[in-house]
Amino acid sequence: MLGAIGAVACGGGAVQVEVLEDEVAQVVPLGGGRAHTVPRATLPSNVKEGDVVRDGRLDAELGTRLAREAAEWRARLAVPVPDGLDLDSGGAESLTPHKER
Q: Per-residue b/e over 68-99, b at no fewer than 16 CB within 10 Å?
């Protein structure tokens, strides 16, 4: 049964490896869908979290492209910090005691 799940998740298309554990891995189909847990043995031995596996093989080119696109997306969403704004001041003190006074 686990082998069949691994074949469906890894052999039927491209998946991205989200979480790697000793015996299992969580993968997500590219293009959307639910995450699946598969036996780690169904993945290439050199796979890492974030890698893309297509047809049972590591697709380094697609993984690199997806990582670059994600970094570009995060950069577009980033909000610049205005000059002179100190984000570290007062960070250690809780706001709750001030509200209670």
A: eeeeeeeeeeeeeeeeeeeeeeeeeeeeeeee
Q: Is the pTM of the predicted complex or chain greater than 0.90? A: no
Q: Calculate what percentage of the chain has a pLDDT beyond 70.
A: 74
Query: 25-43: per-residue pLDDT in tens?
Result: 999 999 889 999 999 999 9
* pLDDT exceeds cutoff 80 at 3: no
Which tokens go with 39? 């036996």
Helix (H) or strand (E) holding 16: strand 14-20
Measured between alpha carbons, how far is 68 from 65 in angstroms, rounded to an integer?
5
DSSP string, 35-79: -EEEEGGGS-TT--TT-EEETTEE-HHHHHHHHHHHHHHHHHH--
